[in-house]
Amino acid sequence: MAIHFTLNGKSATLDVSPDMPLLWALRDNLNMTGTKFGCGMALCGACTVHIDGEATRSCITPVSSIAGKKVTTIEGLSADGHSHPVQKAWMEIDVPQCGYCQSGQIMSAAALLAKTQRPTDQQIDDAMSGNVCRCGTYNHIRRAIHRAAQLQAGGNKSAISGDDRAPVESAAKAAHATVGGAE
In the 3-class helix/strand/coil scheme, how is the chain assigned residue by residue? Predict the structure, then answer.
């Protein structure tokens, strides 16, 4: 059964079993390997893609359900792979450790910011609650989402604001002096 849909802005067709999970069709048939397998039960979020703009767990989504819809994977979030505000913020804040869950985290964050321009910590926690990070980078993720919201709104200011920078610079100077540096 041929299933026609839009993948990352381009027409796509899959001729696979209609019950095949979208995750495997993306990875095995369309070579979209940025979407990861984590649990196979929609519990970890590593497989998150957008279907018509909604963050969706592709590991439990049958291919038949995407007919006529728009699917966006991490590869299609931005044309160059790093210019979406969430991707920029992720790099600026240096969120990833092992990186395995990050495509799902980024896709969930991008879906949140498409609907909520200035999310609160609670809104971020709610939107990201289905995404598991075994490295525990949740504070960095929340900070990056706030930064992405700022970038999306046209803010260019560094993630470390002037107010935040002073204590960091003071601590660096104190550490330098303690280690034997002369000031």
Answer: CEEEEEECCEEEEEECCCCCEHHHHHHHHCCCCCCCCCCCCCCCCCCEEEECCEEEECCCCEHHHHCCCEEECHHHCCCCCCCCHHHHHHHHHCCCCCCCCHHHHHHHHHHHHHHCCCCCHHHHHHHHCCCCCCCCCHHHHHHHHHHHHHHHCCCCCCCCCHHHHHHHHHHHHHHHHHCCCCC
Q: The domain spanning residue 105 has which CATH number? A: 1.10.150.120
Does the pLDDT value for residue 123 go beyond 80?
Answer: yes
CATH number reported for the structural domain that contains residue 16 in this entry: 3.10.20.30
Instruction: Name which of 143, 140, 114 is nearest 55 in CA terms.
Output: 114
pLDDT for position 52: 98
DSSP-assigned beta bridge partners for residue 54: 51
Residue pLDDT, tens place only, 157-173: 655 443 333 333 333 33
Lookup: tokens for 71: 């699917």
Range of the domain at 95: 78-183
State whether 94 and 72 are in the same domain: no
Q: Which of 34, 54, 76 represents a domain boundary (last residue)?
A: 76
Token digits for 90?
Answer: 């992720």
Judged against a pLDDT cut of 90, whether residue 176 lies above it is answered with: no
Can you give the pTM of this predicted structure? 0.84
